[in-house]
């Protein structure tokens, strides 16, 4: 049974779907949920699902990314994760940290990578006049939002869309895509899934 740690920064809607999916004959189980913000709403949701939680507030570390990540790694390594799923985790990780977990770390990004790495992805897709948007699950490598793609889900951009409406449409797809990709990844299947 693969041990999965999920890292969040906010509400954790993707974390909830991932945790809910790991039941029955699923080859993985959620063992820990962590956040870089002790007030992240997802921590309570995880606790109410019976999942152990932790938080490491990144703010006291200021620019000391390595210091923050050392604390994060302490919690992670105690859980002996086979897989680390970043789900709405909004901290950029240093190459050293990423290398430590290379091959075990996934992320979901709300764009059709390689388009729109970084922030404000939906506003950028709308501004560019794109017909489609979506989400990508990828392996985390040292280059931000650029690792091997494990899955993508597409949605249409509608004429009167604003970023919030589009984000909501994409999030619905994320909640189907991420659990499907995690299940394949936990079964050592890294072939990309296009929904
Ligand atoms: C989602 O748009 C996800 O793509 C991005 O963070 C946002 C919030 O995710 N990574 P969640 O509701 O906290 O799972």
Summarize the structure.
This protein has 195 residues and is an alpha/beta fold. The chain has helices at 13-21, 41-48, 65-78, 95-100, 121-127, 163-186; strands at 2-8, 28-35, 53-55, 83-86, 105-109, 132-139, 149-156, 193-194.
**Cα end-to-end separation:** 26 Å
Shape: globular
| Order of neighbouring strands in the sheet with most strands | 3-2-1-4-5-6-7-8
Structural classification = alpha/beta
SSE string, helices as H and strands as E: EHEHEHEHEHEEHE
CATH topology: the name is Rossmann fold
> What ligand species are in this complex?
5-O-phosphono-beta-D-ribofuranosylamine
Strand content: 15-25%
Structural commentary:
There is one protein chain. The protein is of the alpha/beta class and 195 residues long. It has one domain: 3-Layer(aba) Sandwich (Rossmann fold), CATH 3.40.50. The chain is 35% helix and 23% strand. The chain has an 8-stranded mixed beta sheet, sandwiched between helices. Helix 1 packs parallel to helix 6 and helix 5 packs across helix 6. The radius of gyration is 16 Å and the shape is globular. The two termini are 26 Å apart. The model has no long low-confidence stretch (mean pLDDT 97). 5-O-phosphono-beta-D-ribofuranosylamine binds next to helix 1 and helix 6.
Helix-strand layout with pairing:
Layout: E1 2-8, H1 13-21, E2 28-35, H2 41-48, E3 53-55, H3 65-78, E4 83-86, H4 95-100, E5 105-109, H5 121-127, E6 132-139, E7 149-156, H6 163-186, E8 193-194
Parallel strand pairs: 1-2, 1-4, 2-3, 4-5, 7-8
Antiparallel strand pairs: 5-6, 6-7
Helix pairs in contact: 1-6, 5-6
The chain binds 5-O-phosphono-beta-D-ribofuranosylamine (GRF).
């Amino acid at each position: 049974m693969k041990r999965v740690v999920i890292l969040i920064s906010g509400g954790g809607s993707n974390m909830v779907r991932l945790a809910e999916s790991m039941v029955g004959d699923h080859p993985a189980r959620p063992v820990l949920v962590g956040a870089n913000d002790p007030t992240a709403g997802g921590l309570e949701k995880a606790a109410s699902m019976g999942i152990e939680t932790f938080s490491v507030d990144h703010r006291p570390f200021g620019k000391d990314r390595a210091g923050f990540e050392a604390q994060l790694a302490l919690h992670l390594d105690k859980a002996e994760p086979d897989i680390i799923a970043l789900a709405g985790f909004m901290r950029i990780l240093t190459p050293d940290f990423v290398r430590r977990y290379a091959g075990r770390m996934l992320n979901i990004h709300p764009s059709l990578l390689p388009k729109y790495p970084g922030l404000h992805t939906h506003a950028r897709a709308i501004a560019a006049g794109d017909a489609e948007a979506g989400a990508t699950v990828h392996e985390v490598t040292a280059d931000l939002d650029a690792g091997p793609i494990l899955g993508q889900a597409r949605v249409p951009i509608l004429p009167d869309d604003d970023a919030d409406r589009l984000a909501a449409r994409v999030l619905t797809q994320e909640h189907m895509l991420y659990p499907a990709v995690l299940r394949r990844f936990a079964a050592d299947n890294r072939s990309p899934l296009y929904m």
